[in-house]
Fold each of these.
Amino acid sequence: LAFSIHFALLLALIIVFSTSCKAVTLEVGSVEVGYNDSSKSSATEDTSTSINGSTDGHAPSVISTLPIVTWKWHHIETPYLVALWILTCWLCKLVCELNHNVTSVIPESGLLIILGFILGGIIWGADKAQTFKLIPTNFFYYLLPQIILDASYCMPNKLFFSNLGAILIHAIIGTCWNAATVGTALWACYEGGAMGTLNIGPLQFLLFGALISAVDPVAVIAVFEEVHVNEVLYILVFGESLLNDGVTVVLYNVFDAFVSLGGLKINAAEIVKGIVSFFVVAFGGSFLGVVFAILISMLTRVTKNVQVIEAGFIVVLGYLSYLTAEMLSLSAILSITFCGVCCQKYINANMDEKSVTTLRYTLKVMANGSETMIFVFLGVSAIDKNIWVWNTGFILLTIFFVVVFRFIGVFFLNWVLNQSRLIPIDITDQFVMAYGGLRGAVAYGLAALLDEKKIPEKNLMLGTTLIVVYFTVILQGITMKPLVQWLKVKKATHSDLTLNGKMNNRAFEHILTAMEDICGRMGDNWWTRHWSYFEDKYVCRLLMKSDARKHKDPIFGAFHKLNLEDATKYVIEGERKGSLAFIRNYDSASVDFKKKLALEYADFITADVSEYDFGIDNVPVTSVMKNPIPSVSLDIHEQDRKSMPDDLSAHHLLDQHLYKSRRNNCPTYSRSHYNTSENPDEMQEIFQRTMRSRLESFKSAKMGVNPAKKLSKYPKKDSAHKPNGKPADPHRTHPYGDEDFGFSADSASSSEIADHFHGRSTNTPGAGVDNPAFIPEMDISPPMRNPPWQTETGNKTAVAPSQRAQGRLPWMPTNLRHLAPLRMSTHSTDAFVMADASLDEEAPEKKPGTHHTRL
Amino acid sequence: MGSTNSTLLKIPNVEVLMQETGFSPAHIIRLHDRFKALDKEGRGHLCPHDFGAIKELAMNPIGDRIIGAFFSPGKETVDFHTFVKILAHFRPVDKDRPKEPNSPEPINSRSNKLKFAFQLYDQDKDGKISRDELLQVLRAMLGMQVTDEQLESIADRTIQEADLDRDDTISFEEFRKACKHKRFTMFRFCIRPGERKLMLTLCHWSSELQDQHEL
């Protein structure tokens, strides 16, 4: 079966591909976007124009009768071809990904290039000419920006800025070093006679050195994300490759200008100008990016009414920052890089969570798509007789120098950096860094941009660049993984996102700051500290929404994330187990349940409850006042949404009853895989563990192992709360109510509750399959002595409203949710989580006065 | 060199101090200067209000706890020896320190660093971080941004995460284990660049590096 899928896909690929080829062999016109078909034989042109003439639908001249359908190829030719090619490239990726045994050996980028060879070969076989190739304009304007934007937007911010010094040194000095040494060394060899006679001057060699020194982020990410090296190494390589693209382009432009000027006119003044222009272009571009980042952040403050296109603003403005920089002849790559890096924090806080997800996925789709196209076209472009001017000496020496000088440069710069680093970059990391200097499409694009009039040997340079790209991407890419394993490079360690981590991190920071103050001022993190102070005080006020400011605290953020993750998992588990009965019949059942309980246990409600009664009684009134439900509502879920409590009760609820997240928080930036570590096995295991621990808590409850400890908690908590006075928000009073309930529901009558639970869920029509993990437990022990919620591990503040209050309340989803944990603890894990998972997503929408366009 | 020696000679038992803490003479002098600057009345010891006079420290949310860490229970003053010993917790762990089998654990060992952090939480010194103690710290650090109830649930969850024996408190063992699985990077700052660098570190949590909400 697997083979047939394989085969079918290949077939589909070939069909799509041949369509796009056929279309071109039949039809000739100038295909501007994406493909260059200048070298067409005139014979085909004649035949095709004749075909065109006969089938051209839009010719208004001679129609004898009304045509029913016409052939309008020319109308759609360009977009059609573009779309077909995109499809072809993506199918290539699909084919590559079919077999993971292959991708684990050869990186995907290499495979794509190889597939590109094959496609190029087919085209060449059909046309005897190079019909399609990667045109620099398209590459730089349509394919590259989204890759850079995605990379910078997903950049681990803190890591990036804390290593910014090292990254900048590698990107700027390292690139200049590479450009200068490769260029000079090649020229020296040329003078020494290693390459025969070539029409290349020293300046041209330097220009070539500049373009070949660009470490390509696309290639680097593609290789490194499969290797999972430790994050410092990763950010160094990745950040360097991202920034040095910008530097390379600037260097390239400077040298290009020098070449145009000609060797004679270059004097000291011109060289100084060149250096000045280098810095102006690089820093100007970065500055422009920051300006655009500020613009974007401010814009997202006010986009909440147009949430659907909110994410689009970021993409468009990011692209504009790229184009603007290009227009001002500043460094476009640096501009879009800094735009993405700087605005990510603020837009993530400002925008709705859904928009953030949309943006991430949009960027991933675009970046991944164009990355695929770039690699395929790098392969396709190779099949061209014209560019292959073979000069063994030149090619081999280039490869040799590129590798050697990269190593020298990296080792030297790291040695300098290690003098002041607390944790030095160790030798294996340095080696991998140097080895990870993959060249890619940027170098090719720059080489293709060369002007043949100024540089007679353009084709030699282009061919050599391609070979260097193939050499680094395919050969170094393949050997990277074994090398990393062999050198025992420190891998990225996965660590859970934990509240302990967040909290201790914060505490440690405070401690260090205090120690710094005690010992005297101006430490290394003086800047960090003052920046964060300044940011809190001014930047956030300017760039963040006020409510976003409130929630940006990392501890709180971690808490929120953990809760969301848990909630999602529970829903998934519940759905898989098929016990989502609560969706259909929960309301009536629970109303009955509550009424019954209220009657039964009215006696047990202690005086404590009265203290909170006032607040609880107000619930219906205030909630109606706050959220008037319109009399006519077409949206079925409208009412539920209106009466959603705010986030905090959800946090509270989840916090009480969910287990610690076990999902790994993968630190690497990954372009192609968004959710990094989620396999079914893990889910299964989490589920089983959860079940096991719950069963244990049941058992311990039955044996009466540790109820005393639990009981002692309640008074303590109550006393802790009382000084705070009565909370003003009625929703917040719910948690305390249930303590009394859980506490007072004595063991004698708890068996009834258990029976009730059991009976209800099995009698419910359409209840589906109950959680199998619980059924045996329930059957064996109908007379349970202790209600399960008393023994729940995290059940310190239970969350259901008090019985008395619930008896009075008309049923509302809010209350339902609060009661759900009780049910969860006996029967299904998913009962309340479903409601809460949607809660957080919906919460922003319930604000009055907002009008949302729905997708 | 002469001035260095003369300053060093003024400090009593300086040899012992250097032996215990591992600070170099330059560091000791640097700290001694700072100590004298803090001790405005020249009594030879520091009182809590001397620390309180440090402006930045007053802004630190857990500043008073940190000041408290300098004073052993029942004592109102801290002399130079204790001062340096406390600061020695923050020296980087030296890897190439000769391993002497009988030597006591150095002050700047990882475990001692953690112990120092732990006692900032554990104010009643019973060896356990209770829920209330955790709440106090959280309240100080999170400030007004979150409500009491959120704080409580965060505290509960935090305890739940670390609490292995389910006694609803975090003991030092649990605290250490909670830190054990994580990546620790050294977090550095040095005092006054340009002068001899005095590097202070603490084990630093780096699991949040990926967190994109933070700059």
Note: The longest helix of chain B spans residues 148-162.
Amino acid sequence: MDKFRMIFQFFQSNQESFMNGICGIMALASTQMYSAFDFNCPCLPHYNLAYGLGILLLPPFILFLLGFVLNNNISMLAEEWRRPQGQRGKDPAVLRYMFCSMAQRAMIAPAVWVSVTLLDGKCITCAFCTSVPVETLGNASHPHLSQGEIQRVLARIPCKEIYDGQQLIANEVAVRYLRCISQALGWCFVLLMTTLAFLVRSLRPCFSQAAFLKSRYWSHYIDIERKLFDETCAEHAKSFAKVCIQQFFEGMSTDLVAARCHLPRKAPADAGEAAEKLLGITDQGTMNMALKSWHRCKPPLHLHPPALPTGNGWAGDRQPPTHASAPRKETAAYYSWV
Amino acid sequence: MDRFRMMFQYFQSNSESVMNGICGLLALASVKMYTSFDFSCPCLPQYNMAYGLGIMFVPPIILFLCGLILNRQSLVMLEEWRRPPGHRKKDLAVIRYMCSSIMQRAMVAPVVWIIVTLLDGKCLICAFSGSMDPEKFVGFANVSTVQVQQLLAKVPCKDDELIRNNTSRKAVSRYLHCWSQALGWSILLILIIAAFIARWLRPCFNQAALLQARHWSNYIDIEQKIFEETCCEHSRLFAHKCILHFFESMQQEIQLHSFSSPREGEGAEGGEDLLQGITDQDQVNKLLKTWYYEKPPLDVS
């Protein structure tokens, strides 16, 4: 148990840092994704806005969902939420705490994507290039251009190679203007997020510290209990399997001894553990039969109590008749040959 | 217990170094953020000042708030400040000490950003190029007032066609760069002298009170950590007991329903102790179903 205790202590003390680590990795991944992404503004009047805003808003949504998917605690939350009440009441404050802490961590990568996108400026430049104030920045008196034409020319601002409106408004001027707006928005967004995080973190001790301590304790408890239960079930399954297999081999060996009319060959006293581990199966034919039987006819998931040293051997009424009878049929067949 | 003692010693000795480490990381992050940020002055008369000063002052505020958020001790201090007195009086000197140490650490990254910005010069050139006196520079002397504002605003943008060939563009740029760097170095010098004096003169003033405040602020921090560790340990033991009780109650229920004699432990395999009397598929299924549909009450008395 000591080994398990150490492992659980590790998980408990490091669960927060583990989740923070995943959070940080996702934020870095989001920056990396942005720099690896090949942004290609379509430079067409109606497509620019859709493309620019799509790149700005769709990946954060995906990253947010991914943040929930990668968080192991989501299944714990769902299980606690949906379980029937039974003998243990449900505390909505605990559920709220679990959900809030997961949502806060999942918000970081999307916020990083939006900040990086805004500070870089390409998306806003692409999305809003048709809304540049030509009167103030450029030459609005440029003649013979209808509204649609102006829109078409402005839409090409992000694509320097095909831009043909240098007389209308200089490309660098427009790009610098849009970039400035985008970066201002980006810094304001980061400031807003940081202020919100600061307020959430610092107002909590002022208002509901006792309730917070309670929710945190019980949410950790639910997590630990689930892990311990899984471990206990795994231990149980291991013991179950061990006894089941041991009983299978014992059953095989007993039936084969009975079939051949040999006295059970007693291993010499000094043969020790190795002879015991052979479980009475000591030649190729027997082993092959055991293996075949394991494949063709697996024993039922039902352990019978250990045989007592008296004659008939079954103390309880739980003897599995099917398990014992099949090999017995083979015994009868063998005898009939003789 | 030895393991706990080792862990607590680690926490105690390293609380200060962990916070200093975070402080240093934030300062490095601030330099990295500045170098990777693509500064592009709008070069428009009304926007330059707002952009330049915005880049100089908004990120420091963000870094300051980040410094407060990432510092664990700020939460500890807030809790200590807001808790009801109960059986333990509150010592304002301790809270003041904690507050000042948190603020000092949180100020490092913003100051680093401002100094790096000033030493680099781009922000100040962008913000104040429009406020230069055109008479001082030959290239702007004979230009009309409206145009001169436009031209001056374009000084930070070297490649703009209007300013590219202007002879005084570099002069204005160098002038502002010089002022910016002078300001940056002066601020750095003043801060370092102030820190030096504060550290040297501190032992002359009220050293005993300082030692007390530091001791009790460390104590509050450690006490908080140990409380959290104890709660974790307790919840683990609670869960362990709860699950054992559950398995035992399932075993009793199964024996009650099947009327079999209670199984004897002797003569069983060592592994059978762990089976808790649950020895076939239906029993296991029933146990798992009961665990979901009827979790046991939180009561291990």
Note: The mean pLDDT of chain B is 85.
Amino acid sequence: MAALALRAPRSSSSSGGRSAARLAGLLACVLLLAAGASASRDEGSGESNGTRRDPGRVESGTRRDLHPRSNLTAHKKAFPVLSFNYEHVRKPFEISLWILLALLMKLGFHIIPRVSNVVPESCLLIVVGLLVGGLIKAIGEKAPVLHYELFFFYLLPPIILDAGYFLPIRPFMENLGTILVFAVVGTLWNAFFIGGMMYAVCQIAGAQLGGVDLLSCLLFRTIISAVDPVAVLAVFKEIHINDLLHILLFGESLLNNAVTVVLYHLFKEFSQAGTVTVGDALLGIVCFFVVLSLGSIMVGAIYGLLGAFTSRFTSHTRVIEPLFVFLYSYMAYLSAEVFRLSGIMSLIPCGVTMRPYVEANISHKSHTTIKYFLKMWSSVNETLIFIFLGVSTVAGPHAWNWTFVILTVILCLVSTVLGVIGLTYIINKFRIVKLTKKDQFIVAYGGLRGAIAFSLGFLLTNNKMKNMFLTAIITVIFFTVFVQGMTIRPLVELLAVKKKKESKRSINEEIHTQFLDHLLTGIEEVCGHYGHHHWKDKLNRFNKSYVKKWLIAGERSTEPQLISFYNKMEMKQAMMLVESGSSAKLPSIVSSVSMQNIQQKGPTRGRAIPSISKSREAEIRKILRANLQKTRQRLRSYSRHDLLIDPFKDNLSEVRFRKQRVEMERRMSHYLTVPANRQETTPVRKVCFEPEHQVYTYDTEGESPRGRAAQTHPSPPDTIGLVNEATPRPNQSSALRDRDETELRAKAPDDQEEQLKLSRCLSDPGPNKDEEEDGSFVS
Amino acid sequence: MGASQTRTEPNEFQDMMDKTGFSVEQIKNLRKRFLQLSGNEETISRENLDSIPALANNPIKKEIINAIFDKRNQHESEVGSFQEIGFEQFLMVMSHFRPPTLKTTPEEKEALRKEKLRFLFNMHDTDNDGTITLDEYRKVVEELLSKSGAIDPETAKGIADAAMLEVASTNVPQMAPDEFYEGITFEHFEQILEGLEMETRMHIRFLDVGTATMRCGRSTS
């Protein structure tokens, strides 16, 4: 959300950008110093009084300059009017400062487009972190370190939840087998291969490395071999590779966390137990793994269902709906951690289970809120993680050992490549859509390591090898993020990897997707082969008959997916039309196709539209014209992504508003035309902000909506509906509304259903690009 | 391929293999299934297919059965529909659902795609006039929604209309008010479904291993 808003000014003012950049840079510098100072303060503040009284201390010289308040407190006045008491806001202050710094950095990068095109954001952030860390060190203070708790409990969950909630289910499920193989077998292979090799080399290499025993090696390797979702997301969000690759990489990075956790615990146990047999090891792995993955999934699913169930009853307290989603997910994460299961792995089922039901229940505003909040949190957290990574690098104790480090890096690469090639060979035997060499390359190359490895490294017991391990981990992370991260984009271009299609989920595609599903299920049944589709169909039916009834409120539970898709599409179009004031663009028409081109001439089959008298029409036109001016003026000053609150001011009574919506919607659905133009903006989190339900594409910019208005009688009522939206004049609108009602077709929708439907789409058109995944796996 | 079993009837299946591209194992399995469906006769009729219990829940069951008996799907230039079909025709229909392999060239993929789209098109175009008219499309949507409980017919019409409108707008953007969009032609159909990548989606896994019994799970194909 913040990033979106930031994009807008950037695109509009590139010349002003440079001065803005300078300003931002200046501000950033100031903040850096402030951050550094505050970090130092947290060490020094406790001793400031002490230093004053003890000039013998070595550091006091520098510190006294930074603590003027010590002077103040010495001369206590009767009534301290203006005092400087930093202590009691220290913690929140610092946290806010860090976050602000992170955000400003983000802002800065995007104002300087040249750099951000070449270097992915994550790299830049690490560099900034390094700088800040260096600065803090220069001041001589202890920098905040990426603690295990900080990272795993606060920084990581929103990122994973964001990715999990918006996970494209269909590709994920279709490729689940492949993902699992890569994640599980791949990680295991990596761990053992590297570990074994390293151990062998260490033994050979000599005394210095001789202290490395097999188990610590393996432990170390486990940490290193896991592909990191944060890094993968960060790098790949700027490159749009096709869905398949994206889901493979991302899915793998998520699932291998389970493996990592298992191996980690296992090896820890073993290293404490001393000796271990191979049988023990294998048994341990299997046991742990099955228990762990199933357990995590169950925990996640339970919380997901709870969340869905809760959302069924929230129709009267819409405001807190997003919180339920967040909290249930967080609880799932923490609960999984309680049982030493994989929190990351539990977040995914939680999000996936919750989503279809929650989306059916919550209001449109809540949906937007959830989306924005998740994006915002994950964006900020990601930035913070990378910065902290840089800072911790500078701060941490290092033990550089050329052989070890270089060996690590090389072995990592080699084992990844080998693993991918080998596994693909096996997998391709089972897949319908084979993975080509290009795909394999990207999968191998996209295996970035990141902060998870780093913070796990901190957990290693403090044996003498720890520092060396840490250094090696950091080097690998840096190498993958910088080298691989920077080169992956040109490589993707070079190899002409298939990019993500601009998915304009049209209604035809939706119809045919469903049709195809049924067709394939049917053919499978004819062939007597209970395959993929059969079970999917069974699950869908089970879902429809039982689960939905429990988890979705009201009428929606029986709504088939096609219809809900259609309704959603309608609403979006309606809102888009209103937003852009389509009535303002009557004259230019691009496509003149309207219903009458399709329908056969002749009796309209029960769709008699009562005609309006001429005088009324003239009146209507006059009002239209007057309002068009207003909306045009108003709308011109708004950018696409500002929330258009004005037309929907609160003085419009709720009920009236809803009624207008009903009418407009009904009209929309029967005189369906093309929605208004859609500007192309490039949102930051490209992974998820894709145009969805984009019914019609526009090749040229600034295209006006294909108007239907000019042609036939039905149009004025529609535009009246729009005008009603645009002008908050209750009296006027009620008069118009009366007219509307007479003009309406004599079809009475189910009021209750409409209310329910409408209560979900009140105001706030929000962003046009909704990432509403089809969720068609569970229909 | 299972070398041991093919010795017995190489010729019988050879031309079927050539025409449809199935492997011997797959043909054998399908033959077993065919015999099962037909009650050990040489042909199956609509009643045989109707009686498959699993199909009862399928909303487009009628269309599927019609498609199997449709002469157009036999890749000969006949039209109309059979009353009964033999094993070869059955195989022919099933061959539309084969997936592409790693060795399929882009041209072959394109041809495969066209073939599958053609199959779909024929399913919609019931009167075989080369276009899918609004009525036919409406019927499609209605059928799709038929098993989902009581659906307001207006909604089904609305959806079909919207879809039709979309096809028209994308393919023939400029239309005078009195022109009439006859129906979706095959080219337009291809156009609007371009995003779906039919060649990779429209397939089922044909069993390669010797089993004709109901069994789910992974199988090589």
Note: Chain A has a mean pLDDT of 66.
Amino acid sequence: MASHRIEESALSDFGHIPYAVPHMIHPPTTFTNQEGSAFDFGELEEAIVLQAVNETKQPLYAGRPAATLEMFPSWPMRFHHTIRGSSKSGEESTDSGSAVHTLSSRGEGSRLEPESPVGRKTDSSSDHRVIDQMHHLQLPQQIDMASGSDSPRTGMSQAQPVAKPTSEKRRGAGSNSERLLDAKTLRRLAQNREAAKKSRIRKKVYVQQLESSRIRLSQLEQDLQRARSQGFFVGGGGGAGGNISSGAAIFDMEYTRWLDDDHRHMSEIRTALQAHLSDGDLRVILDGYIAHYDEIFRLKGDAAKSDVFHLITGMWTTPAERCFLWMGGFRPSELIKMLTAQLDPLTEQQLMGIYSLQRSTEQAEEALSQGLEQLQQSLTDTLASGSVNDSMHHMAVALGKLTNLEGFVRQADNLRQQTLHQLHRVLTVRQTARCFLVIGEYYGRLRALSSLWASRPREILIGDDISCQTTTDLQMVQSSQNHFSNF
Amino acid sequence: MHYQTESWNSHKPTKSSSSSVITDPLAHIERLASDNAVVIFSMSTCCMCHAIKRLFCGMGVNPTVYELDEDPISGKEIEKALILLMGVSSVPVVFIGGKLVGAMDTVLASHINGTLVPLLKQAGALWL
């Protein structure tokens, strides 16, 4: 009974200040979390008061940690089995409902018997009955303590000497105490009851919300599973909303998977470099990475057949990558330029090789760009010219011209693929490995830059938002640290 | 870059059948290709052909270009033969030194891996 143990450990601190507990009741949430069913603090309050009655029978410091537990009949179920009239004297009962024990032993239990724990929770009239009982209990001093003493210890020290001698007196008619019991205690008990009721209702609403969210989540997961198996990418991943074609959606999904594979390959290369593997082993890893790139070019080729606009407009990449896109991907000559700065120790032959590679990529890029320009010019001419009568014909011609786009994207990807292969040929194995790491890191950072840019704070937010912005900035910087960790 | 137009007829075989202008288009193509160092079969409306022409001009090469759509006589035949030869698309097709290099993808690949320039030099199309 974990909850019971929690209760014990939590309450053992209060062992010697039973009357301090009423002050600790608010907020009630701490206790409600410990128990599945709602906790009625009205009952707690009453039980504390009743426990005070109990204390008169025994010394407060009788070394009964269980006494504290008895004051916390927080588990109303305990009320059930406590009404058996068992005697309390010397009995180390860890039953928190033993406060009721005492009541029953006094014969007061008869009034508690008919009340089920559930009934107690929901029926406020039962509370009144308990209060009625307390009326009869005549607890002058204890009630004084309970009714708002700021120094529970002093209250207790007062109660202590009082407890014993007043065991007989407490039944005496203390009209003063009766009135005190009525006014303050009653009000406080009523307030506690109200608070307990409110917290119960709040908890019920929260649980209901959780349940409905859980159902909704499982439904969404099912939908996602189904959609993925059908090859569609559900959700706002591409940012295109519902206007994404199936070919584009499939490619986006495959590209996401490819990115994950890329991370894996990168870490593999990184560890291989740090472990100083032999060239042969490293070459195997690098061949795997080249094949990984060949894979994405093949996928892009398939995607170009179904949705060339998706590729050429770069909707499959992040915004920052898209900004510097060339013909549906990276510009090979730019990549070479970026790499030459990173690969310093190059032999003469390697330098020549890299330089000629840069030149040939530039020439090829220029040729393809000019070809694409001519396509655009031709398309413009087709669309601009023609009368209304010929519109259908011109549209057909324009459609025919658009089909050439696929060819250009494919040639551009071919150029990229050849560039990577040539790099692998010109450089040594270790240099190639470092080179691939640099490329992977670069694009990782570019992607990170994209998300940082997207979540940067805007100037229009002022006032309270500023502090939130700074924390967001810090979080963003920290989250992007891992991108910069290796170089 | 120079475009061949009328001189094609000089290569027509003496025996001409009624159906086709050229009995053996492939041989015809071979003959045309071996006449110059760099021969490109192209079409004036094709943008990829434009790109390949730009590539060679950018390298300082002066290719011989045959615009098939501007040849009313044998253009279609050659185009069909090129499709047979290449399998997929007809133009652009490049011959260097009389030997078939291929379409745009092979030309680009050979340029990147550094084999195009030596080939051009060997054929006498580049002097550097």
Note: The radius of gyration of chain A is 39 Å.
